[in-house]
Amino acid sequence: MRVTIVGCGYVGEALARLLGAQAPCHLTLTTTREQRRAALEPLGDRVLVLKASDAPALKQALESADAAVFCMAPGGDRQVNAGVYAATYRDSITTLLALLPELPQLRQIIYTSSCGVYGDAAGGWMDECSPVLPRDAHAAVLVESEQLLVQARSDQRRVCVLRLGAIYGPGRDLNRRFQSLAGTTRPGDGQTHSNWIHRDDVAGAMAAALAGAWDETVNVVDDQPWRVADLLDRICTAAELPPVQWSGASPEVKPMADRRISNRRLRSLGYALLHPTLSGF
Ligand SMILES: NC(=O)c1ccc[n+]([C@@H]2O[C@H](COP(=O)([O-])OP(=O)(O)OC[C@H]3O[C@@H](n4cnc5c(N)ncnc54)[C@H](OP(=O)(O)O)[C@@H]3O)[C@@H](O)[C@H]2O)c1
């Protein structure tokens, strides 16, 4: 199989490593930065430096691929505005759609979206049949990008949208991210649920989607949503740090959506999670 991974960052690189360790396949990897080339070259057959909204460059990346995995994201861990989001997701998908008539061999497209497309469920469960309800301009871009991408589906081409929970794993461990909150007082009551997925399960689900020719939208989260207060308590206790306090007052900004995301479809497709619940703290 010939696979192109567009956006070889945290999860794209993990997927490249996983595919490299499985059955032989020809891998094209992309980055937007020349300085990432050296790190990626050992993982693939070809490394291209491009933005996916650059049509000639994207065509070059995809022209011999049987499958493409789009896992681009703007700015690493930096917060970016909705315009940058649109340039990264919507403009890339629009460019892909325009190129498809020239890419008849491309039989499968996998795209990493986010559970952020769902609205609030007051702590209830949501699955892939639940309505999407973007709560801000960033989520609206993700919804629009998904809706554009599914136009690529045909009898000859499968489209799989993976809606990821919040990603953690090596280099993005929870202790480092949240220990700085120890001893602080946070707005609200901390009872909102958070939905997580380990990096290696994101890579595993993407590889399973490729191997299994998935052609649907699939939530990629682990088995156990965590209330934010419980998670921070666990982290602070394990590190012997003072707990986070909750003011009970309404958060100044719009509160996080409270929903528990179901992974039943992921499991029914046969994927066995490597990390069924948060670990490593
Ligand atoms: N992080 C989370 O908790 C989370 C939650 C839900 C969903 N997701 C989704 O998961 C996917 C992977 O996230 P990640 O954490 O692996 O992101 P990441 O580490 O920031 O990697 C993103 C990759 O996309 C590349 N890129 C940026 N802009 C691009 C563009 N315009 N065209 C093509 N490539 C571009 C980056 O290039 P460089 O190599 O030059 O940096 C990098 O290789 C994304 O689709 C993200 O939306 C993430």
Protein described:
With 281 residues, the protein is an alpha/beta fold. The chain has one domain (2-168, 196-223, 260-268): Rossmann fold (3-Layer(aba) Sandwich). 32% of the residues lie in helices and 20% in strands. The protein has ten helices and 15 strands. It has helices at 10-21, 37-40, 55-62, 82-88, 90-99, 137-149, 174-178, 199-212, 228-238, 264-268; strands spanning 2-6, 26-31, 46-49, 67-70, 108-114, 125-126, 158-164, 166-168, 185-186, 193-194, 196-198, 217-220, 226-227, 245-246, 260-261. The strands form five sheets. A seven-stranded parallel beta sheet has the order 3-2-1-4-5-7-12, sandwiched between helices. A two-stranded parallel ribbon has the order 6-15. α4 (82-88) packs parallel to α6 (137-149). The two termini are 38 Å apart. The structure holds NADP nicotinamide-adenine-dinucleotide phosphate (NAP).
Give the tags.
alpha/beta, 32% helix, two-stranded parallel ribbon, binds NADP nicotinamide-adenine-dinucleotide phosphate, globular, Rossmann fold
Q: Briefly note the CATH topology name.
A: Rossmann fold
CATH architecture: 3-Layer(aba) Sandwich
The number of distinct β-strands equals: 15
Class of secondary structure makeup: alpha/beta
